[in-house]
């Protein structure tokens, strides 16, 4: 039901943005919600199913205009290669933040999870005040990063002292309370950079569902505002419970999306012109393929 509600919410946003769009709205909403969570191999099956459900509809490429341009500009400022696959994932992350207040960036190390939300946040901040592709205007983004597995449950959520019975706030409860009472429209992203397991994530279920409330052991209930988003940067969901996974949007990043062109190319300026220099391209490709196969011949 949560997935259905997300599709309906995305369709509503598209209808408000494009009042004249009819049959294409359902197809766009289904794609925007589901494509980010699929692997490259799964996309072929998904596209086949969609083509069977909507045989007469031909979807046109979506122009994200200023958002895509701003993302590429931020990549240049941060000395990153603006690979098309990476830009697409940044846009998918933006679309997910519009319809979900809880989401997970899933993928192995080196797939670009950290840079994905950093680049998107910087791009949205640079576009502050301009009309957004989802309606309204872009707002600046403030990101709070913490590793939930590096501290205890008491340090994360807060705890009672066993001797004095005094309540001590945790890191997350302080951050959420400050964000909830804030009256500005600045986007607040709370990034949990660490493994997801049942030890600490179960207390987030009331935050991730429609209630959007953080319930503390002290009896205090903190209501999240509309500008607050809970993000989780994880390598896999092997030990995550279905209750948690069903409450979150998913953006899956694969190293194959980046390829190796962003590693074996270097841009230099010579006589006012950019020249691409190939650095040990053949050797790098051989190592890349060998590691992927898991063999060392």
UniProtKB/TrEMBL annotation:
GO MF annotation list: ATP binding; dynein intermediate chain binding; dynein light intermediate chain binding
Which positions make up the signal peptide?
Answer: none
Q: Please, which domain of life does this record's source organism belong to?
A: Eukaryota
Question: Which one Pfam family would you cite for this protein?
Answer: AAA_6
Q: Which InterPro entries has this protein been placed in?
A: AAA_6, DHC, Dynein_AAA1S, P-loop_NTPase
Tell me one GO biological process term.
microtubule-based movement
Q: Which residues form the Dynein heavy chain hydrolytic ATP-binding dynein motor region domain?
A: 1-114
GO CC, sorted alphabetically, is: dynein complex
Under PANTHER family, the record lists: DYNEIN AXONEMAL HEAVY CHAIN 1 (PTHR46961:SF5), DYNEIN HEAVY CHAIN 1, AXONEMAL-LIKE PROTEIN (PTHR46961)
According to UniProt, the name of this protein is: Dynein heavy chain hydrolytic ATP-binding dynein motor region domain-containing protein
Q: Which organism is it from?
A: Sinocyclocheilus anshuiensis
